[in-house]
Structures are given as C-alpha cells and as structure tokens.
C-alpha cells in the first residue's frame, strides 16, 4: 500500500502531508452502552438504531455501527477507531476530535460542522454528504473513498490530503486553506474557485476549472 506521505515526498515542491497516526487503542476493551454525556474509556461500542452520545467523552474506544442516527454533537473524541460503520446520519457538530480513524462502511450524512479536528483519517468509506462547514481541521487524510457532496464553506483547513477519492461536487466557498492537496480527488465540479488559495491541484484539474475561473474574472472564452 502506497502511503500519502511517500507520494508527496517524491516532489520537494509538494505540499506538506497530513501527519496522521493510528489511534492508541489498549489491548483489552470493555463492552459499554452508549448514553448522553457518558464518560467512556477503553470501551467497545456496538451501535444500533438511534444513538445519543451527545456531549460524551470517548477515549481509546473501538466502535462498530449499523444505526439510523448517531448523535455525537459536542462530544470529545480521543483515540477512537471506527470500523465498518453503516449509518444514515452521523452528527459530530461542534465536537473535538483528536486521532480518529473511520475504516470501511457507508454513511448517508457525516456532519462535522464547527468541529475542531486534529488527526482524522477516513479510509474506504462511501459518504453521500460530508460537511466540514466552519470546521477547524489539521491533519486530515481521506483515502480510497467516495463522497458525493463535499461541503467545506468557511472551513479553516491545514494539511489535508486525498488518495484515490471521488466526488460529484466540492463547495469551498469561504474556505481558508494551507497545504490542502486536492490532487488525489477526482471531482466533477468545484463550486467556488475563488477559495482555492492554499490548495494544490493537477494540471488536468486546472484545465477543467478554467471556464469557472475565467467567469469569475469576467473573461469570456470564445473560439
């Protein structure tokens, strides 16, 4: 498996790669039941139905899910590993995330609006709608994933990378970016090219964006 850091290292002019590490999970976990404002340490959670973990604290936990809705609004998430999740809706609005990995599965809506993120990895996940609106995120890596709609208005993002990913549309309106690498994201459309400062794209991506960029500058293209 080729690592993202190895890809960007081949070019000294490449953007700085995300610094993502594996969640620190202890060898022994205790099965636990989810509840609002719970304080969970070294727990194994199997989530089903409608789950209320709003304002909970999850540290060194492993999660699997086949759920309708998972509410993690305002939660504190530290060293959490999520595997083969299937959920119609996952809300982590205004949560605090440090070292979280989601591997495999499908999510209808993943709402990270207003979330503070430090080290998040999404790998081999299908997501219909991912919102990072207003989020402050550092070190985010998305690998081998399909995201139909990627929404990032007003987000502040640093060291974000994509590897072999696909999206129908990407909304970057008002985004502030540093070392955000879109080269590994095949997107049909970027909705706001004015907010792509601080990002890296391929020559082909720039060619695709040329009409939109020209329109934003008031340039007519006629042959």
**How many discrete structural domains?**
1
* C-alpha Rg (nearest Å): 18 Å
CATH topology: Pectate Lyase C-like
CATH architecture field? 3 Solenoid
Portion of residues within helices: under 10%
Q: Helix and strand string, N-terminal first?
A: HEEEEEEEEEEEEEEEH
Biggest sheet features: 15 strands, parallel
Topology:
Layout: H1 4-9, E1 30-31, E2 39-41, E3 43-52, E4 57-71, E5 76-91, E6 96-111, E7 116-123, E8 126-131, E9 136-143, E10 146-151, E11 156-163, E12 165-171, E13 176-181, E14 185-190, E15 199-200, H2 203-216
Parallel strand pairs: 1-3, 2-4, 3-4, 4-5, 5-6, 6-7, 6-8, 7-9, 8-10, 9-11, 10-12, 11-13, 12-14, 13-15
Describe this structure in words.
The chain has 223 residues and is mainly β. It has a single domain, classed as 3 Solenoid (Pectate Lyase C-like), CATH 2.160.20. It has helices spanning 4-9, 203-216; strands spanning 30-31, 39-41, 43-52, 57-71, 76-91, 96-111, 116-123, 126-131, 136-143, 146-151, 156-163, 165-171, 176-181, 185-190, 199-200. The chain has a 15-stranded parallel β-sheet that branches. It starts with a helix and ends in a 7-residue tail after the last helix. The model has no long low-confidence stretch (mean pLDDT 92).
Summarize the structure.
The protein is mainly beta. It contains 2 helices and 15 strands.
Features:
53% strand; single chain; 2 helices; mainly beta; 223 residues; elongated; 15-stranded parallel sheet; Pectate Lyase C-like
């Amino acid at each position: 498996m080729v690592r993202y850091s190895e890809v960007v290292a081949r070019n000294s002019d490449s953007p700085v790669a995300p610094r993502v590490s594996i969640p620190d999970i202890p060898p022994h976990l205790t099965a636990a039941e989810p509840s609002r404002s719970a304080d969970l340490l070294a727990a194994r959670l199997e989530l089903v139905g409608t789950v209320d973990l709003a304002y909970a604290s999850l540290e060194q936990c492993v999660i699997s899910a086949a759920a309708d809705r998972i509410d993690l609004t305002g939660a504190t998430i530290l060293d959490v590993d999520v595997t083969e999740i299937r959920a119609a809706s996952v809300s982590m609005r205004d949560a605090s995330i440090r070292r979280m990995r989601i591997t495999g599965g499908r999510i209808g809506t993943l709402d990270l609006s207003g979330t503070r993120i430090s080290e998040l990895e999404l790998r081999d996940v299908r997501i219909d709608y991912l919102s990072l609106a207003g989020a402050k995120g550092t070190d985010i890596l998305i690998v081998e994933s399909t995201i139909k709609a990627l929404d990032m208005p007003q987000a502040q993002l640093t060291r974000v990378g994509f590897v072999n990913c696909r999206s129908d549309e990407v909304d970057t309106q008002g985004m502030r970016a540093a070392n955000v690498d879109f080269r590994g994201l095949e997107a049909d459309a970027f909705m706001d090219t004015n907010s792509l400062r601080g990002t890296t794209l391929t020559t082909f991506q720039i060619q695709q964006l040329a009409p939109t960029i020209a329109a934003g500058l008031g340039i007519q293209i006629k042959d």
